[in-house]
Amino acid sequence: MKSFAELTEREILAVAIAAEEEDALIYLAFAEDLSVRYPASAKVFQEMADEETQHRHMLLDMYEQRFGKVLPPIRREDVKGFIKRRPIWLTKNLPLHTIRAEAEKMEFQASRFYAKAAERATDIGVRKLLSDLSEIEKGHERHATELEAELLNDATRGEEDNTRHRMFVLQYVQPGLAGLMDGSVSTLAPLFAAAFATHSNWETFLVGLAASIGAGISMGFAEALSDDGALTGRGSPWLRGTICGLMTAIGGLGHTLPFLIPSSLPNAFWYATAIAGLVVFIELWAIAWIRARYMDTPFLQAVFQIVLGGVIVLAAGILIGGA
Predict the structure, then answer these.
(1) What is the sign of the dihedral through the CA atoms of 153, 159, 165 and 167?
(2) pTM for this one?
(3) Which of 13, 270, 314, 323 has a CA-to-CA distance to 297 between 20 and 30 Å?
(4) Strand pairing partners for 80?
(5) Are 52 and 133 in contact (CB under 8 A)?
């Protein structure tokens, strides 16, 4: 690999031409990824890709004037310490804010490259072109804002906000809620059965810990393997699986931790049981609120479904443990 300081003026122009071509393709990939979910924002990235193509033609014209039609086979990955693009465009259904942040970083890096390249250019015309491109790249963020203002009216912004909300629910809320429900409810029976069977805080804690972690691992893999997100738009399966698994474990650990109260304390078992019961009550109401807030379930219906189900499971555990 060559260092940037070793590049000739011809190689600098060749690298810039290849970089503009690649950046245009990246913006097109962003536009394609957003076309169904955010069509107006996809149009913005289509316009940005067209501008990168214009920059490439400007650079190519300058190169042909100075060095002819044959381009040396050098690209930015051949230059030591040169800017590299993360292959983020290979991931489908990226959040809109992630794509916008990546585009801003790309424009900033391109502007710095052209500024440094202009300092090394000896030809007046080449230096002017590179300096102009540096300023153009600096203004791209402002231009992108202008394009958004032109293309995104109130109606399209409202549609995209609704889509963003749906994607947030699908990718984060839904797997997290499923995990929290499973962890909070499914661990009640084994935890309270162990509690009333042993009247030992430490042994009850171990049962609850094992049930919570086991349920978290099981739910995490089940969620990750259930859907790759390609058709449903639910995002990365491993991200969803991680969220679901963690929330399952948290849901079970919430009412398990009170049993860490040392059994040597007076009435420690009943204090731990009372605190665990209070935590269960809070967990079930929180789940009902989340369902009402994000899943369009009437609050009273959510309360009836979740709290009643949790109370039945809790009662089953107590009856089995006390038998």
Answers:
(1) negative
(2) 0.52
(3) 314
(4) 3
(5) no
